[in-house]
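Pasting as-is:
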Amino acid sequence: MEFNVRRLAADAGTFLSRAVQFTEEKFGQAEKTELDAHLETLLIRAESTKHWTEKIMKQTEVVLQPNPNVRMEEFLYEMLDKKVPTRANNHELLGECMIDSGHEFGPGTAYGSALIKCGETEKLLGSAEKEFIHSSAINFLTPFRNFIEGDFKTISKERKLLQNKRLDLDAAKNRMKKARVADARSAAETELRIAQSEFDRQAEITRLLLEGIGSTHAHHLRCLNDFVDAQAAYYAQCYQYMVNLQKQLGSFPSTFTNNNQPAGSSSASVSVPSAPPAASLPTLPPNQASPALNELRSTSGTRKARVLYDYDAASSSELSLLADEVITVSSVPGMDSDWLMGQRGNQKGKVPITYLELLN
């Protein structure tokens, strides 16, 4: 009991001495022992490493899981040391939706079959995404997190000890300056030697830990390579899935079947009219143009037009069209005679005249 009281009193005295020394340094009333330049450089590099490691981790987590609510849920499960429940991701949900709708419309129809094939590919994309996230979490995020929660915490602890040892050293120096009596001076000298020895030892421990940051950078570089490799494999896999899907969808016949009838039923077949190539649109001289078209060109008004064929825009200045839709068209001075300006809602662009039928 007596020993504990003496120890508490000694600790309180040390704390008070450090607090006084720290306060006097802040007000410029006491000298401060500066760390050597090399140690200061190592400390700055360690802080920079911590700062950017945390930022890279945070942004990587956003890339791997853009939904902040899901990230928070996963964090809570981790804090509670519980397993995160398995859930379907967005690709898998879309895939299931497409497959279900494809079966509803009928696997024997072109549309139903296409939906099922698209859904199966979406589910493959979802599985690839899960594998990529899992691999990145283990090989990239975990080593970064281990540094923040392990190595850097140790560095911070030893750095705090170094700060305390420096305050003890400077307090001992001040007592040495104030000592006038021989006995007090001798005791102050002994205290100063002990404080200097403890400070030097702690400075060496801290320096060795800080120099290990170089090894941390090398390790993180290997993790970065693993992350890039995982990304490359993931995107290559997704690309291959989509190329395969394009080939499957491209194998469908050029006729569309009624969704309520099997694909082989002749009564369900509807031929799609072939559209003239955009590159070889026929020219309509003004004297051969329809009266409605001449009237449109002679005024600054607008007309409704029905689209005869599907048309894919060849540039950003053009407007894509779907057969049988109705759009608004107008003539623009100086525009090529083969084209009109088309508008659908907020979308606007050039459209070829030969794809249109002006309405009364």
